[in-house]
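seq as requested:
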Amino acid sequence: MGTQITRLTRLAAAGLSAVLLFATTACAATSPAETEPDNKTSVPAPTGPINVVASLNQWGSLAAELGGDDVEVTSIVNSTNVDAHDFEPKTSDVAKLSKAQIIVANGAGYDSWATKSMTKTTNIVSAASVMGAVEGDNPHLWFSKDARSSMATAITDAYIKALPSKKKAFQKRLKAWQADEKSLETWASEFTKSHSNLTYAATEPVVYYLMADLGFKDQTPKGYTQSTASGGEPAPADLQSFQKLIEDKGVDVLVNNTQEASDATNMITGAAGRADVPVVDVSEQMPKDADTLNAWINQLINTIIDAVDPSYGCEDATDGDTADSNANSDDSSAEGSATDDANAQDSKASTGSSTDPKYIRQCKAAASSDSSQDSAKADAANGRSRRCLRQRPDRLRQIVRSKGHRHRIRANANRRLA
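struct tokens:
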């Protein structure tokens, strides 16, 4: 009897355990359905402005121009007094980079420090990656028209990804920038078409891409270029070859990097001064007086043209040799007004804007002081003033060039030898 009770007790306990197990399983099965709404909690849409940190001010300027009020851009290297090749970021710089949503860098070994502090959520836009450049290539990519255009698109894409709600605003800014870039490239290409076989030499291969875009051929001795590119000192033989090239006027212009001064560069610029070879000073970082990256490029192109052909794209309205200026002033005035209106309509149709091109040839007086005084007297008598005209593809005009005149941009006194 006791044995039967014990068995019944065990059976009852087993049955109760089975019931409890079934109930627990049923609760567990319904649990996900009950908690599912909590797992689908919506993530708030990102809001601006986007925190952008650029390694160099030239790329930072482009990033700011494309982002407008929807971004906050900080540039780490933002002075021409800083040698970017030897730059070491401060603790505060590293902190800024680590907090950035987007890092705009140059790459190609020029600013490798910029990407060392990035987090997993940081989006990096690199000019070298966009252009397929690697360490050992010429890293001064901002002077390349192709690199600037590709970076503008890549930066805009990064902005849209970080702040989708502002997609239309970002695309509108990109379109406006592309129109300005096109106007810059157009007038620069007009100069290239009318000037063949121009040559240059450089104390540093900083503006290699820009000079190539303008059609200049690099005549710098290869040994000298290789030494400076690797950060070494040029061999005496290479330095002598360079000096002889300048003394023999074997180039149309000498480009001098003001951020990399040395005894060697002083000797070369001194030789250029004695040989009356034009010297154009450039910097690697964008100077403070430049509003944007393309404004700086436009300024440099004008300076280079002033060095090799200062009369290009410029016309003196008082010049007696100009056929149209004196004979048909009234007709040309009316015709010019009509032409300007037509050109404005063409510009509006092609770029979507009624404003004049932002980047054009900016002329400077290329005459001597005596001829300048004569021009001033003629201006006062005739009520005319000197003006600068940009050549247009649809109506190229013959430019009266100074005979044998070479406008020379002098290097600083401390860069010349006695």
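Strands lie at 50-56, 71-77, 102-105, 123-126, 199-202, 217-218, 253-257, 279-282, 314-315, 387-388.
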